[in-house]
Amino acid sequence: MNSVAPNSADVLLLFDIGRVVLDIDFGKVMASWAGHAGCTPAELASRFVVDDSFKHHEVGRIDDAAFFQNLRSSLGIGISDEQFLEGWNAIFAGEMPGIAPLLATAGKRLPLYAFSNTNPAHVAHFSRAYADVLSHFSEIFLSSTIGLRKPDARAYDHVVKAIGVPASRILFFDDVAANIEGARSRGLAAVHVTSTDDVAKALTALGIQL
Hints:
Blueprint: E1 12-15, E2 22-24, H1 26-37, H2 41-47, H3 52-58, H4 64-75, H5 81-89, E3 92-95, H6 99-107, E4 112-116, H7 120-129, H8 131-134, E5 139-142, H9 143-146, H10 153-163, E6 170-174, H11 177-185, E7 189-192, H12 196-205
Parallel strand pairs: 1-4, 1-6, 4-5, 6-7
Antiparallel strand pairs: 2-3
Helix pairs in contact: 1-2, 1-5
């Protein structure tokens, strides 16, 4: 963490979703698709890449159907859109252990926001399946809605402007080092999350009793 003073009453908290609030397991995606395609998860995992199609999907430039069509080509499998969607949403593996009570406690003291690199299919799924834990956030910024994804500097600037406070008042939590560095380069304080304990320690440093 950097540059946020303990007991700061005017701090706002901004959370990534995947591996910070919700656990994700990409192996479940591969297992589901492989089961439908008649191959092994390892085969698909070796072919899957975060390419332009993936990034365009996360900023709303292509829809789910176009993304799945690109996957048919890159993965070399002929499964249906419905089967792709089933596997794609299998990535969510529940809430991160212990995060819900931390958000509930922090939310009594400070405003909570979320900012996720995501796509329309996942948004539709997690908005329903995890409505309770996500209800702690005053607003959730989605890359597929704002048309910008982390660690693009413009993405942080957009979120800071929308929240309406100086970047230095925002403490950002993310599990990806590049996203942490991107946030810090735009003036946000940031915590690299490797487990829920990192969130708890940061909240304690702010004077929040857990």
